[in-house]
Amino acid sequence: MLDDNEKNTLTSIIKNIGRNDVENELKQINFFKNFANDGVLKAKVEKEKKVPLILKLSFMFGLLLSILFL
Questions:
Q1: Helices (H), strands (E): how many in the chain?
Q2: Cα dist. 13→4, 37, 42 in Å?
Q3: How far is CA 69 from CA 3, 63, 65, 66, in A?
Q4: How far apart are CA 55 and CA 40, in angstroms?
Q5: pLDDT tens profile 27-44
Q6: How far apart are CA 3 and CA 33, in angstroms?
Q7: Of 27, 34, 52, 70, which sits with the fewest C-beta atoms within 10 Å of its C-beta?
Q8: Within a 13 Å sphere around the CA of 67, how many CA atoms are in the beta-carbon half?
Q9: CA atoms 59, 64, 69, 70: torsion sign
Q10: 0.70 exceeded by the pTM?
Q11: Where along the chain do its domains lie?
Q12: Rounded to an integer, what distance in angstroms lies between the CA atom of residue 12 and that of residue 7?
């Protein structure tokens, strides 16, 4: 999910596409690429933090269910 700052930045980028000359458009596109890359890096870090916990919880839940059904 995007936070409010990210939503506002994306909205601003989308609204301003096609309103500037070529040089400023290229700057805006490069800014968007950097913004998107930063978002991908943040998502990867979050994934690395949460995946081991999710796997452990899933294993424990499966183990609990198998014990209950025996």
A1: 2, 0
A2: 14, 15, 20
A3: 42, 10, 6, 5
A4: 22
A5: 888 988 998 899 899 989
A6: 18
A7: 70
A8: 6
A9: positive
A10: no
A11: 4-69
A12: 9
